[in-house]
Amino acid sequence: MTVDAQHILVKDADKVDEVLANVTIENFTDMAKEYSCCNSGARGGSLGTFGKGQMVKEFDEASFNGPVGEIQGPIKTDFGWHFILVNRRG
Fold it and tell me: DSSP assignment, residue 49?
């Protein structure tokens, strides 16, 4: 099984609240470009397609078990807080 997903990674708790209050499906790509501290932010948060076990446990569980087409998060990992949008799972 694989997932195609985008994410926004923030390390500052204040930014978590700001993203949570403002992020929508429609503006997710723009919010990723503006707020994400991950290199993927420049690509609108796109992580492309990845398989189970390629991401850290919390991220992996949300990506493979959470809803498709809905924003999940904030999800805490050792890297910070993630907002995840799974576009496709198959």
Answer: E
- pTM greater than 0.70 (yes/no): yes
What is d(CA 26, CA 28) in angstroms, rounded to the nearest whole number? 6
- 7 contacts 85 by C-beta, under 8 angstroms: yes
Any bridge partners for residue 3, and if so which? Answer: 50, 89
Per-residue pLDDT of the chain (90 residues; tens, 9 = 90+): 999 999 999 999 999 999 999 999 999 999 999 999 999 999 999 999 999 999 999 999 999 999 999 999 999 999 999 999 999 999
Burial 37-68 (b: 16+ CB within 10 A, else e): ebebbeebbbbeebeeeebeeebbebbbebee
For the record, the structure tokens of 22 come out as 């403002």
